Amino acid sequence: MNIRVNKDVTEYKNDLWKGLTLRQLVFGGVAVATAIGVVAGAYFLCYVPIDVAIYFGIPPAIIIALFGFIKVDDMTLYEYVQEIWRIKWQEGLCYESEDYTDAVEAEKSIYRICAESEKQQKKLEKKSKKRVKESRRKDGQ
């Protein structure tokens, strides 16, 4: 007895009718109903020719159908759009670790030490210049 099992169980699809899931059937039905409503509204209320009215009904039907049929990264298109929207409008996350604070303090102390050593070096240079000037004065007399 052989029982077929898909290699990837996560891709298992619960078929309801002709290979379509319930979600796909519902969104497909809503897409068709929307297209019919748009075409009827354009034809009967705005007196648009039927062939042009059909072109008006296609874009909303496609958008609605995409939300039922498309999956991105194991998320429905609605969840994916929500995630993108959340990431786009998310404020910056602030986090300061203790290690970072310690590193900043260490860096500040290094700068302080360097600045102090530079000051000392400048003082020594000034002193040596004064000594050179004094020695030249003495040698010149």
Low-pLDDT stretches are none
Mean pLDDT: 83
Shape annotation: elongated
SS-based structural class? mainly alpha
Strand content: under 5%
Tally the structural domains. Answer: 2
The helix content, as a percent range, equals over 70%
- What is the straight-line distance between the termini? 119 Å
Gyration radius, rounded:
38 Å
Largest sheet: 2 strands, antiparallel
Strand order of the largest sheet: 1-2
Order of helices and strands: HHEEHH
Instruction: Give the beta-strand count.
Output: 2
Number of helices: 4
Describe the structure.
- This protein has 141 residues and is mostly helical.
- The protein has 2 domains: 11-76; 93-141.
- It is built from 4 helices and 2 strands, in the order ααββαα.
- Strands 1-2 form a two-stranded antiparallel sheet.
- β1 and β2 (75-76) form a beta hairpin.
Short structural description:
The chain is mainly alpha-helical and 141 residues long. It contains 4 helices and 2 strands.
Keywords:
2 domains; two-stranded antiparallel sheet; mainly alpha; 2 strands
Topology readout:
Elements (H helix, E strand, L loop, with lengths): L21 H24 L4 H20 L1 E2 L2 E2 H12 L9 H43 L1
Antiparallel strand pairs: 1-2
Helix pairs in contact: 1-2
